[in-house]
Amino acid sequence: VVLCDTTLTPHQIQRIYEHADAVVCTRMHSAILALTAGSPVVTIGYEAKSLGIMNDIGLGNLVLPIETVSGTELVKRLQHALETNPPRVPDFRLRAKEALTNLHLIDQEEV
Questions:
Q1: What's the pTM value of the predicted model, to 2 decimals?
Q2: Which of 27, 54, 78, 95 is deepest in the core (most CB within 10 A)?
Q3: Distance between CA atoms of 108 and 42, rounded to whole angstroms?
Q4: 3-state SS, residue 27
Q5: Which residues have C-beta within 8 Å of that of residue 69, sequence separation ≥ 6?
Q6: From the DSSP assignment, how many helices (H) and strands (E) are in the chain?
Q7: What is the rounded distance in angstroms from the CA atom of residue 23 to the CA atom of residue 62?
Q8: Neighbours of 87 (CB within 10 A)
Q9: Angle ∠(60,61,64) on CA atoms, nearest 5
Q10: 18: which residues sit within 8 A by CB, 6+ positions away?
């Protein structure tokens, strides 16, 4: 466990995540940074967007609803994340690129 009380840039956070054995996230953006760093991720979801992004990349089973999170369940999900962490960075980046392209196309249609 690392506690940092310094304000870091997203890139600095991502570099830290690259060296983590696993990352437990409560914020969607932290999960995205950890995933792009290639770290196993478990997300404690308190909003639908965390579950949505994890479902979109096939990792919805690694989201714990805030209402039912427990130490036992968190440990189980972490073990699963560590055992099954396939390299997902290229897939995630491809999906992000496609999403941005689609947004750009929608924006052009409105003009």
A1: 0.70
A2: 54
A3: 36
A4: coil
A5: 44
A6: 5, 3
A7: 11
A8: 8
A9: 90
A10: 37, 38, 39
The pLDDT value given to residue 39: 87
Q: Which residues contact 64 (CB under 8 A, 6 or more apart)?
A: 42, 43, 44, 45, 73, 74, 77
95-98 long-range contacts (CB < 8 A, ≥24 apart) are: 95/56, 95/57
Per DSSP, the three-state class of 44 is: strand
- Give the model confidence (pLDDT) of 47-95 as tens digits: 888 888 888 888 888 999 999 899 999 999 999 888 876 544 555 556 6
pLDDT at 28 over 50: yes
Pairing of strands 63-65, 23-25: unpaired
50's tokens: 């965390």
Per-residue confidence (pLDDT) for residue 37, from 0 to 100: 86
The sheet carrying 63-65 orders its strands as 23-25, 41-45, 63-65
